[in-house]
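Figure 3 (text version): structure tokens given as input.
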């Protein structure tokens, strides 16, 4: 499973890029607003740090305007993936951009039929929002499982499942077990993946025992 980092903060991306920990980046209009920076400058800077897919979202509602915005965003760097909302207009724009070989990420997916439509429209990625479904008492992980089963039934559906709106480390484990192609993970959760209390206790014990030997390796 690929790891994308879900942020528009350059400093956070730098932190993960140096050890090749992340394969790509996802942004959305809320994350750009939170960063306080210009979308085009931000995406350009991210693309200098990350050579993998970088999702940048259109903000128009109309198909033709989405296509125009998508072309501008993809023009920033060849690895920019155009993120489009799961509406009829978004699907139509997805289909047209896909025909132009511009990669797309259809976002705000909350159901299996929506994921099926996005795949039929030629989406490169589908982004089911698992945390936001959990928030309303519906299992987001179950949705990933449904989409995986549906896409695996048909050789002609090649859309990649990008598990989004991840809120905890258990989400990461569960979507990896199901076989999501990508998880886009907020920086805070990405850092938490390394933590386990038994690792900390075990390391302390090893180092205490080592100190008692008086030995040094160098
Ligand atoms: C990523 O592509 C999504 O925009 C993001 O994961 C949404 O996460 P949220 O539900 O925590 O805002």
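Below: residues designed for each position.
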């Amino acid at each position: 499973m690929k790891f994308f980092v879900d942020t528009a903060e350059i400093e956070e991306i730098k932190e993960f890029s140096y050890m090749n920990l992340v394969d790509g980046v996802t942004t959305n209009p809320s994350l750009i607003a939170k960063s306080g920076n210009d979308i085009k400058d931000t995406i350009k800077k991210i693309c200098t740090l990350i050579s993998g897919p970088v999702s940048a979202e259109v903000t128009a509602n109309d198909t033709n305007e989405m296509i125009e915005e998508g072309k501008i965003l993809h023009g920033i760097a060849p690895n920019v993936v155009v993120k489009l909302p799961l509406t009829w207009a978004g699907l139509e724009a997805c289909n047209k951009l896909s025909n132009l070989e511009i990669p797309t990420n259809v976002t705000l997916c909350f159901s299996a039929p929506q994921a099926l439509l996005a795949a039929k429209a030629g989406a490169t990625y589908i982004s089911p929002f698992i945390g936001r479904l959990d928030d309303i008492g519906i299992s987001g992980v179950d949705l990933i499982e449904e989409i995986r089963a549906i896409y695996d039934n048909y050789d002609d559906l090649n859309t990649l499942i990008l598990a989004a709106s991840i809120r905890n480390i258990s989400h990461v484990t569960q979507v990896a077990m199901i076989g999501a192609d990508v998880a886009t993970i907020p920086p805070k959760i990405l850092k938490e993946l390394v933590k386990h209390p038994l690792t900390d206790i075990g390391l302390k014990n090893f180092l205490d025992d080592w100190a008692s030997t008086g030995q040094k390796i160098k």
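The beta strands are 2-6, 24-26, 54-57, 80-85, 104-109, 125-128, 160-163, 182-185.
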